[in-house]
Each structure stands twice: as C-alpha cells, then as structure tokens.
Amino acid sequence: MNKVILMGRLTKDPEVRYTQTNNTLVASFALAVNRRFAAAGAERQADFINIVAWNKTGEFCSKYFKKGQQVGIIGRIQTRNWDDDQGTKHYVTEVVAEEAYFADSKRENGDSSNFENTFGTNLSDNTEFQVNSSDDDLPF
Q: Which of 33, 25, 31, 35 is nearest to 12 (CA)?
C-alpha cells in the first residue's frame, strides 16, 4: 500500500503549469513538515517535501493555498527520473496529492470574511453546535 498523510506549512505559493501534450493543470509546492521529536537541547527539525497536485486538486491548491499556510495532504509517494539535455540523469521523489485540506486553526487577523466569501458561511457565528456543560447530560 502506498499512502501518505502529511500536515505542514507551504514554503511558497503553489506554482502552476500545464502539460504540453493535453494541457492538464499541475500545481507544485513544498511542505515544511516538522519532525515529531527533537534531540535533547536541539531545535525541532523539519523535512521539506515536494508535492504535486493534478487537475481539480491542483486547481484547488493553486487557488486557495498560500505561502505559510498550514495544510493537510493525503496522497501517494512517486519516484521518477529523466535525462536532461546534457545527458545528466535526475531523480525525484515527490508526493502526488489526491486530497488537500486546510489545517490552520485560525484565520489571519481573526478575519473570516475571506472564508465566508469563498464558502458561503461564517463558522464563527454558528450557534447550532453548542456544548452544554451540565454534568447531568454526560454519558459517563
């Protein structure tokens, strides 16, 4: 099974290009993914992982993802190689994004208007889901 789940921050805005053969959209970007543990007395390190998103997923990433934003990616690892014009062989390992999600816990400056304009709802004003803190209703 080849499945990857990542959460990290974009190192730059996604770069969009189109294939020469059938004009298919492909978005490329890198995620800085923090390692789970740090050595004693050392700073936590990050891995920089190349992501490629095709078609609708790529369109979504290019439209809504920005540098510094925390996102979640589900996909698969792909390796490929090619020879350049000088005959040098190049190897690349990347994640092909099959699903892409927002993972930031709060919006910049606490402003939800961009989210509201994009998705048609303001989650901060949603009163439908309220927690009742009374111990009488708890199942345990």
A: 31
Indicate the length of the chain as a whole number: 140
CA distances for 69 relative to 26, 38, 61, 72, 127, angstroms: 19, 23, 11, 10, 27
Alpha-carbon 73 to chain mean position? 5
Q: What CATH number does residue 10 fall under?
A: 2.40.50.140
Instruction: Compute the distance between CA of residue 30 and CA of residue 65 in angstroms, rounded to an integer.
Output: 11
For the stretch 84-140, pLDDT in tens is 999 999 999 999 999 999 998 765 555 544 444 444 333 344 444 444 444 555 454
**The total number of structural domains that make up the chain:** 1
Which tens digits make up the pLDDT trace of 46-64?
Answer: 999 999 999 999 999 999 9
What's the CA gap between 1 and 128, in Å, rounded? 40
